[in-house]
Amino acid sequence: MLKVQEIRELIKLVDQSSINEFVYEHDDYKIKMKKNAEKIVVAEQVAPVAAVAPVAAPAAPVAAVAPVQPKPVETAAVQEEVKAPVVTADVENLHKITSPMVGTFYQAPSPDADVYVKVGQKVSKDSIVCIVEAMKLFNEIEAEVNGEIVEILVKDGQLVEYGQPLFLVKPE
After folding, report:
1. Which fold has domain 91-171?
2. Looking at CB atoms within 10 Å, which of 11, 44, 64, 72 has the fewest?
3. Is the pTM of this model over 0.70?
4. Mean of pLDDT values over 63-82
């Protein structure tokens, strides 16, 4: 199974390349990514595949294989939620904490626990601000900067994309 860092690298390579679709199959799992004209990368874990022949590692960038069509309703919902927040502060002076991967955003370590951060709270660069779950792995996201949380841009339980802004922080 791929490690989180390897998946991140795959996402970066697909995002930076000219290919629009990518599929990776190995043993009992399959990862599909598709990039549309708006540069949104969609990754999806598919149920285990029965008796799949091993895929040889390519020497050059992988060509597009087996397109994944994201559900239009989900894509539209994600795009609407990204546009919804209204920022009252000067955005140019704010630091954006972005998602390092595709996954599900969680504000707290468990449903009954307190959230990691709230608007107006001071954070240091090693403060954990949220969790992004990807393929049943819970990845703690750090603030990366000392400052104050100005806005939380996504909702708890929302699907987030690679590079999507999660928080706006006023640096100190």
Report:
1. OB fold (Dihydrolipoamide Acetyltransferase, E2P) (2.40.50)
2. 72
3. no
4. 48
